[in-house]
Amino acid sequence: MTDRGALRVRGTTLRWGVRTYLMAIVNVTPDSFSGDGRVAVDAAIAHAVRQWEAGADILDVGGESTRPGHTPVEPATELARVIPVIEAVRERIPAAVISIDTYKPEVARAAHAAGADIVNSVLGAEPALLDVAAACAMPFAAMHNQVGTYYEGDVVDRVIAYLRACAGRALARGIPHEHIILDPGIGFGKTPDHNIRILRELARLVELGFPTLLGTSRKSTIGRLTGREPHERIFGTAATTALGIAAGIDIVRVHDVAPNRDAIAVADAIVRDWRPEGWIE
């Protein structure tokens, strides 16, 4: 197996290509599209602990909904939501890898001080946010996004070019290659048919050579295909998890940890030749 490096934070090593890692969603918002947002600090902390105990590798804490038509919140509001959760999770689960789901530099910096390890940006790789990540030595996940769903040319070509440029800006700031994670942004500035096209061609994203992240959990394209409400889209999400792994995706970001952990275990055994601890031939 080719050594693709690893994500290393806080004494934890996530080695790329050995297995697929699970990023669990912890929404500290009142308006999440999936209905799982928890503004009460205690409830959000308890949810984060449950996600970790269910088998998450990374806890992704966010304080602003990014669903279509969302209302942006001020940094002060976002900070008031996420900082107490990050601090409490860091205290209760010292080994947890925590990402902060934000595009605001001031939130990323404060989250790092509170115990967050990774920046997860839904707005690509904006220079000011990259500067914070580099100064704090934080791995950086950049997601493709745009306003509207019109593309000049092929949608997959445009997404790949955008993410290649994001990676270049991150490298220029000294962020290590293995700490730059690229996400095609399923559901962001894309029609359902765009989303399906991108999912069909995930191997092209993997071929860029950087770690990759896929976020399809409970999204509207799965709802359009299955006719199910967000909380009922577990099996549809698991299908994209397995197909993403077949294409070489490294991280899947999900609401429902346990069923996707099962999908990962089976797909990893087939695709990556992974076996659970204690496996006997």
Question: What attributes does this structure have?
Answer:
281 residues; alpha/beta; TIM Barrel; 8-stranded parallel β-sheet; two-stranded antiparallel ribbon; 10 helices; 42% helix; 15% strand; globular
Q: Could you characterize what this model shows?
A:
The protein is α/β, with parallel strands linked by helices. The protein has a single domain, classed as TIM Barrel. It is 42% helix and 15% strand. It contains 10 helices and 10 strands. The strands form 2 sheets. The protein has an 8-stranded parallel β-sheet. 48% of the residues are buried. The mean pLDDT is 94.
Taking pLDDT < 50 over at least 5 consecutive residues as the criterion, the unreliable ranges are none
Overall structural class, as computed from helix and strand content, comes to: alpha/beta
How far apart the termini lie comes to 21 Å
Mean pLDDT: 94
CATH topology, what is it called? TIM Barrel
CATH architecture: Alpha-Beta Barrel
Query: How large is the count of helical segments?
Result: 10
CATH class annotation? Alpha Beta
DSSP, total strands? 10
Helix-strand layout with pairing:
Blueprint: E1 6-9, E2 12-15, E3 21-27, H1 41-53, E4 58-62, H2 75-92, E5 97-101, H3 105-114, E6 118-121, H4 127-135, E7 140-143, H5 155-172, E8 180-183, H6 192-200, H7 202-206, E9 213-214, H8 220-226, H9 234-247, E10 251-254, H10 257-271
Parallel strand pairs: 3-4, 3-10, 4-5, 5-6, 6-7, 7-8, 9-10
Antiparallel strand pairs: 1-2
